[in-house]
Amino acid sequence: DIQMTQSPSTLSASVGDRVTITCRASQTISNWLAWYQQKPGKAPKLLIYKASRLESGVPSRFSGSGSGTEFILTISSLQPDDFATYYCQQYNSYSPYTFGQGTKLEIK
Amino acid sequence: QITLKESGPTLVKPTQTLTLTCTFSGFSLNTSAVGVGWIRQPPGKALEWLALIYWNGDKRYSPFLKTRLTITKDTSKNQVVLALTNMDPVDTATYYCVHTPEWLLSHFDYWGQGTLVTVSS
Prior knowledge:
- The complex is a heterodimer of chains A (about 110) and B (about 120).
- Helix content of chain A is about 0%, strand content about 50%.
- With about 110 residues, chain A is an all-beta fold.
- In chain A, strands 2, 4, 5, 6, 9, 10 and 11 form a 7-stranded mixed sheet that branches. A 4-stranded antiparallel sheet of chain A has the order 1-3-8-7, with no helix packed on it.
- Chain A starts with a strand and ends with a strand.
- Chain B is globular and about 40 Å long.
- Chain B is an all-beta fold.
- Chain B contains no helices and 11 strands.
- At the A-B interface, strand 5 and strand 10 of A face loops of B.
């Protein structure tokens, strides 16, 4: 199965900062990658799919990039509502779907 | 508007079988490419995909749990049922029902609120 590794595991930032979270796949997954945001006690919310496609209703300050084995989630200007845990997920058809271990975005 | 809601026991004993029902609205499992699945999350840990069933009856399971999992659908009732046999305390988790709009290459665009299942004697 394909392993997904996120970095960093924890990220401290301030409102207005530009932040990036990296997700690496143990083998190539083309652009079959999604990003989710999860707040405490809530279900995850889809932000990005197919590596760079913004889900409907998601603010444009979120963007995704990458292909193959390395992917990046960027938040261009952090807002108070963005402090949460973020997960990447690969969905290559020849492997079970797997998630990264999560990146907790904290207020500095 | 797509919604999904999980239902089932909150407490099960070790060795028992867990049966969870996902009741959904806003879409049909007769629609081409659509699928419904299950993902779980142990307390304080990451997400783990378990199973998917698609509009055409195709089923996919996590290879790590395949021998213990069964997923079925009842299109007329807009329900998907997950069974997980031989429950163990490590199976304690919040179980989420999810919708995917694409066959096989599946990201999950709608999630249920989740249901916490505790395994304890």
